[in-house]
Write a structure and sequence with these properties.
This protein has one domain. Helices cover about 55% and strands about 0% of the residues. The protein contains five helices and no strands. Helix 3 packs across helix 4.
C-alpha cells in the first residue's frame, strides 16, 4: 500500500476532490455513481464493516452523473492504453 500512496498523482486526486465538492458529494459517492453508470457494470458490490457504511453506500447511488460529468471524470482519469506482453 505504501507504493500506492507514493505513486499517487496528487494533482489528479485534487481535481477529483474538487469535482466531488463542487457537486456537494463525497469522493465515494462519485466513485459509486461513476461505476453504476458504466454500461458493463450490472451492480456495484461494496463491502461494509459498519451499519453507517451500508447507509452511505446505498445513498451513493442517488447521484446520476450527466454526460458532461462523465466526460469531466474521463478527463481527470484518462484511460491508459493496455499493451499485450506476449
Amino acid at each position: 500500500r505504501t507504493n500506492m500512496v507514493h505513486d499517487a498523482d496528487w494533482n489528479q486526486l485534487g481535481r477529483f476532490s474538487s469535482f466531488a465538492r463542487e457537486r456537494g458529494l463525497t469522493e465515494i459517492q462519485v466513485a459509486f455513481s461513476w461505476l453504476a453508470a458504466q454500461p458493463a457494470v450490472g451492480s456495484v458490490i461494496a463491502g461494509a464493516t459498519r451499519p453507517e457504511q451500508i447507509r452511505q453506500n446505498a445513498e451513493a447511488a442517488a447521484w446520476v452523473p450527466s454526460t458532461g460529468d462523465l466526460a469531466e471524470l474521463d478527463d481527470i482519469f484518462p484511460k491508459v492504453p493496455k499493451v499485450a506482453l506476449f
